[in-house]
Amino acid sequence: MGMKIKAKMKDGVTEVKLLLSSPMVGKEESETKKVPVSYLTHVTAKVGGKVVWEASTGPFLSKDPYFMFNFKGAKAGDEIVVETIDDKGAKDSDKDVIK
Amino acid sequence: MKRRKFLSLGAVAAAATVIPASLSATDFRATAPKAWEAPTSKEAIEALFGSAAATEGKIEIKAPKLAENGGAVPIGIKSSVELTTIALFQDANPRSAVAVFELGDNGVVDMMTKIKMRKTANVTVVGKGKDGKLYSVVQRVEVSIGGCGG
Questions:
Q1: What is the domain-level CATH number for residue A51?
Q2: In angstroms, what separates the C-alpha of B8 from chain A's closest C-alpha?
Q3: What is the domain count for chain A?
Q4: What is the pTM of this model?
Q5: Chain B CB contacts of A27 below 8 Å
Q6: Disulfide-capable partner of B106 in A53, A73, A97, B147 (CB 3.0 to 4.6 Å)?
Q7: Which residues constitute the domain of residue A39?
Q8: What is the CATH number of the domain that holds B78?
């Protein structure tokens, strides 16, 4: 578990770099590699309780998924909260302050 | 009185079964389960967006000409039209759908992620515009060493 979030503001646009932690193993890879199925199914980023970006995800994202995304409307000092859930329903959450 | 009690219990039970299923309002794994099992991009796109025609030339995929590591192929997505939903597909793995992104009201279509590709194949992005129309782009991505897609 665990994740890394870096959010910085430039010209009114917040750029987020997000590195998550998951083997992202689907049923096919589980069979060939004899490892358990385990992958993230959803990632949500919120600022002030409002969803700014979200992803429904599957096992063909790379191991320890990486995302970069952009949005407007936030300001430096705002807190961004990222929540994840996996195929077993296990949740994780972390936050960063927008610089 | 009994009836009212029964109804309120029903509402509580319904809420309890709905809430843990998703963190958000837009869980495309729940709303379009078939899309995630589809072996080809064509089938996955139809399961997610229906069979309406999509406009080409507005969305841009930024990917390496030759990806050296099929386990983590960087795929950048930009668009000249405003999009609310952006879905990423490939035909290099047993199943096509990779991720479906949903942007908030202030979303900017400039994103990047990394995907698995066990062989050279087409990568497709389909986006739903704020105008309700569909936009798409297909790009062939060459992979020199396959990823672990199964």
A1: 2.60.40.10
A2: 27
A3: 1
A4: 0.88
A5: 150
A6: A73
A7: 4-97
A8: 2.60.40.2470
